From TrEMBL:
One of its GO terms (molecular function) is calcium ion binding. Residues 327-347 are annotated as: Disordered. Keywords: Calcium, Disulfide bond, EGF-like domain, Glycoprotein, Membrane, Repeat, Signal, Transmembrane, Transmembrane helix. GO terms for biological process: homophilic cell adhesion via plasma membrane adhesion molecules. GO terms for cellular component: plasma membrane. It is found in: Membrane. SMART domains: CA. Pfam families: Cadherin. This is Cadherin domain-containing protein. InterPro entries: Cadherin-like_dom, Cadherin-like_sf, Cadherin_CS, Protocadherin/Cadherin-CA. Residues 1-22 form the signal peptide.
Length: 360
C-alpha cells in the first residue's frame, strides 16, 4: 500500500475513533412541559463555547430538536406514563430517560433527558361502581380488588355513619362497622357508600367510587305463630272441608322465610291434612259419637340451613248434628187373631228409638 493511501486510511480511522469517543450531557425536565420550551444548552452543559458547525441529531428524535447554538427544545408532548415513551418507568416506576445523539462536526454528544413525574393523573378505580356482598351479623368485610394501590389517602362517606375503613398489616383495605351496630337484613338490605382516594401530590388529586353494600339474609329468625283459627267442627263437614287455619310468619327472606307445616301425630295426620299456607282440612269424615275431640300437634319449619322449627298444638271439638231420623219398631203380641176378631181385641206395642249418643 502506498504511503498516501495509508495516510488517508489512518486519518479516516482517527476520525472514526474521535466520533466514537462521545461526550455526554444530561438534563432534567418535567413531563407535559410546553412545546418549544428550552430543555438546556449542550455547550453550557459541557462547559465550553460552541464551535461554528451546526448540530445534527442522528437518528432524528421524536421529542427534541437542537439549534446551532446548542439549545435543546421540546418538539412533542412527553407523557411519563405513556408505555411507548417510557416503558420501564410506566411498568416499574424507575427513571424515565430519553437519549439521543447530537453530532457537531465529528464530535458526538450523547444527550440524556430525564423526564420528571408531575401529579397530572388522578387515582383511578377499575369501575365507578362496585358491589360488596355481606351477611347480616358480620362485623368486617373485605373491599376486594378495586384496582388501586393502598398508598395514599382513603375516605369513606355515607349518610348513616355505620361503616368505617380499616387497613390491615398487609396494607389491604377492609370495610368494618363503626362502633357496635348490628347489620340486620330485615331492617336494611342495602347501604350506599362513597369511597374517595386521594394521592400524595402537592396539588392533590382525588377520585371516587360508589360502593353498593348489599346485605344477604341469614337464617337468624325462627317461625312465629301469630294466631290459630280453630272453631268447633260439625261432624257433617265434608272431606276436604276447611276446619282450622294456622297463621305464622318468618322475618327472614327467601328460603329462610318460606314455611312448611307438618301434623306430627299419626292418628291426627290420618284425619287432617295441612297445606303450606297453614290451612287444615279433613282427610276423612268425623263422628262425634266415636271421637269428639282431637289434639293436633303441628311442626312449623322454615327452609333455611340450618333449619329453624317451632311446635304448636291446638284442639278441635267435633259437634254432633241431628243427622238420624227416629226409628219405629212394631212388635206383635203373642197369639194369633182369628178371622172375625174385632180390632179391639188386638193389642200391639210400639217402641220409639232415637239414635242419639248414650251420653245424651
Amino acid at each position: 500500500m502506498s504511503p498516501p493511501h495509508l495516510l488517508l486510511r489512518l486519518a479516516a480511522a482517527a476520525a472514526l475513533i474521535l466520533s466514537l469517543l462521545a461526550e455526554e450531557v444530561a438534563f432534567r425536565i418535567e413531563e407535559e412541559t410546553d412545546l418549544k420550551a428550552t430543555v438546556g444548552n449542550v455547550w453550557t452543559g459541557l462547559g465550553r463555547q460552541p464551535p461554528a458547525p451546526e448540530f445534527r441529531i442522528i437518528p432524528a428524535s421524536r421529542f427534541f430538536s437542537i439549534d446551532r447554538d446548542g439549545h435543546v427544545r421540546i418538539e412533542s408532548r412527553i407523557d411519563r406514563e405513556d408505555p411507548a415513551t417510557c416503558p420501564d418507568a410506566s411498568e416499574t416506576g424507575s427513571d424515565c430517560v430519553i437519549e439521543f445523539n447530537a453530532f457537531n462536526g465529528t464530535t458526538r454528544i450523547v444527550v440524556k433527558v430525564t423526564i420528571l413525574d408531575i401529579n397530572d393523573n388522578s387515582p383511578t378505580f377499575k369501575s365507578p361502581v362496585k358491589e360488596i356482598f355481606i351477611e347480616e351479623g358480620d362485623q368486617r368485610f373485605s373491599i376486594g380488588d378495586n384496582g388501586m394501590m393502598t398508598r395514599g389517602h382513603y375516605f369513606l362517606k355515607e349518610d348513616e355513619g355505620t361503616f368505617a375503613l380499616y387497613r390491615s398489616q398487609r396494607d389491604l383495605l377492609s370495610l368494618g362497622l363503626k362502633g357496635s351496630p348490628i347489620i340486620d337484613y330485615e331492617q336494611e338490605q342495602q347501604y350506599n357508600l362513597t369511597l374517595t382516594a386521594c394521592d400524595g401530590g402537592r396539588e392533590q388529586r382525588c377520585s371516587s367510587q360508589l360502593l353498593l353494600v348489599r346485605v344477604r339474609d341469614r337464617n337468624d329468625n325462627q317461625p312465629n305463630v301469630t294466631s290459630i283459627w280453630n272453631p268447633d267442627v260439625n261432624e257433617s263437614t265434608p272431606i276436604g272441608g276447611l276446619v282450622a287455619r294456622i297463621y305464622a310468619h318468618d322475618r327472614d327472606s327467601g328460603e329462610n322465610g318460606r314455611l312448611s307445616f307438618t301434623v306430627t301425630d299419626s292418628r291426627a295426620a290420618a284425619a287432617f291434612a295441612i297445606d303450606p299456607e297453614g290451612r287444615v282440612t279433613l282427610r276423612k269424615r268425623l263422628n262425634a259419637r266415636t271421637k269428639s275431640e282431637y289434639d293436633i300437634p303441628v311442626l312449623v319449619s322454615d327452609g333455611g340451613v340450618p333449619q329453624r322449627q317451632v311446635t304448636i298444638k291446638f284442639r278441635l271439638r267435633v259437634i254432633d248434628v241431628n243427622d238420624h231420623e227416629p226409628k219405629i219398631t212394631v212388635t206383635p203380641m203373642p197369639g194369633a187373631a182369628g178371622r172375625g176378631t174385632r180390632p179391639s181385641g188386638l193389642r200391639r206395642t210400639a217402641g220409639l228409638t232415637r239414635l242419639w249418643p248414650s251420653s245424651r
